[in-house]
Amino acid sequence: MIEVRPGGRRRIDRVLGPGYLSGVGDLPLKVLRERRDEAAQEETDLSYLRRLLHARIDIVRAEQTRRSSGGESSIVDQLATILADNALGPAAGSGRHQQLEPSRAGEHRRHAEALIGDTDLTDVSSLTDDKLASALDTYAREELSVSSFRREVQSVMDTLNAEIAQRYQQGSATVDELLESEGGHEAQ
Predict the structure, then answer these.
(1) pLDDT > 90: percent of the chain
(2) Are 41 and 11 in contact (CB under 8 A)?
């Protein structure tokens, strides 16, 4: 289970820490952007973990469906279809276009694999019905937790973006300053 540790040193601990948005109106624009970017990276990582969990949920559900319908084909034969159905279906939740790559992909894969301990999804057909149900329950509970933290991080991003936009609207920040700070170009 993902958790936020007050005073912790991980990115999620900082982004969802009580002081992250304190005095947001008084922070320098550079700090606002840095915090927004840090929150965006955390949201990207949480989204990646969420997708990993969804894939595992889809595999377990497909095996349960195969068993209940008396299907003969193996899950391996259906894997491309199972995973594509989720990718091609309508988006659920508050998805956002992400330009970042997950920074901790390996860590997230290990986290998803460790959730079930001795349950090996490489051969779901060999698992008992009880183990499948337990795996589904574990993955679903973790997905709810990850989604909840992801929404909290998105809320932090929204607050930071709103403050940045407000500064541009009020004229206390300009595009020329942005271009100068990001590209080293001189304001004209």
Answers:
(1) 44
(2) yes
